[in-house]
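As a warm-up, study this chain.
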Amino acid sequence: ARQQWFSKALKDWKVEARMYLKKGYARASNKIDLYLLDSEGRRVGKITLKDNDNSYEVAAHAQIGYDSVSSKTVYSSDNDSSVKRTKNGSNKKKTIKYKETVKVTTGKGKKKKTSTKVVSKTMALPQDLDENTLTGFYGVCTFEKVGNKYTASFQKCNNNGQPAGKKWRGTYTDSAKKYGDSIAGVAVYIAKYDITEDSKNVAYKPNPAALTDLKVYEVLGDTVEIVARAGDEIVINCEENKVYKNGSMFLENLYIGSEFLTMNGGVPSSFTVSPEPVSEASWWMDYSPRYN
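Now compare it with the structure written out below.
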């Protein structure tokens, strides 16, 4: 688990992170929780990726609220018809071997004695190899609040690590204004559920799970902030890690998680621009190797 506070509380916000839940041992059960916290450390929202059953099927959820009982669902793959079972795997049972201490009684009457000994036992457990659309998920998860509208999405990344393909998305409008709390921090909790193998002290390999590339943005309302006008020059100097506008320092305070570009001549590189530019905008890049 890890907790991180922001430099200020955010009334409207967008939280983005990459989550990974690898396909491994079918019976292992894992989850990744990203909690959104208010200034008192209270949970006000949560993004979850989990496999809490003895199969390869993965579920994704985003909630707004203070606990799992009273919260409102912004997105749940359980209610999304596009998240389907993609493979009906074998339901062949998994046999585990374990040791157990038992009591042994010998003799009769006054000569009766009780002792203990360790015996080997086996147990057949259910093992479901079914898979679904989100099995082995590695992708970008976002959660956004603007006014009283909440939006959450999950999108897989391709082999180059770039978000691609379908977005599983949901929205919730808090018409009663029951929620609406500012967020002042986040907490990450990656854990596994106890399964029978744990209670029997049987070794197995847990499924890898990770959260990375966490970014938090402040949404500044519906008014679009003009960064540059026609004729202005924006220079992103990746050697100095500084941004200039018309020769003067600009954007000294960068978003959490943002990085300056690193490029090497003759080496193909891929970059992600976030938040995504509006459809009317165009982005391009010129790279001129430094001449010494």
